[in-house]
Amino acid sequence: MLKRRETPLMIVVALLLVPFIILRSCSRSHVAAPRRADPIRYELSGGRTMSFTLSSSAFSNGGEIPRRHTCDGDDLSPALTWQNVPDGTQSLALIADDPDAPHGTWTHWLLWNIPARATLLTEDESKTELLDNGARQGINDFKRIGYGGPCPPPGKPHRYFFKLYALNARLDLKPGATKAELEQAIKPHTLAQAQWMGTYQR
Q: How much is the pLDDT for 32?
């Protein structure tokens, strides 16, 4: 008789607990799966920041460098312009070199302490240790101060990279420094790098 009386009571209690269990389960499921940010939207919102870029009106990126900017012509440095210098930039540095030279990378131009507010280098920059804007120049692999244009041996085209560095400091580096000295000086201060490449063949 006791079993007959307890059975209906247990069924009633169980039926009352079912909705509570279901609601609790749904609540936990909702908490365990929070909404995640859409990575595509994140990339789009981040796209508002502009890229630090370098360019030249003398030749296209990857294009042939005109003879006037080489040792076969007037050996004039090409005009260079840049934009979107990153926040915190205190100065800029430039390294131009040829990684296709027969005996290793050949340095063509070293320039640093370009003012952060500057946006260009004009064609035919002076081949002196100090420029009018306060920038300093190093010694290239022709053993001369300033720019030395492409002058490859006959054969396949060589690539000439103009690399501009945005730095968070002005460099305490004397004019006439070598590429190795400049690279060591800029390494801890580089915020961003931009580059433009041209080719030349003889």
A: 36
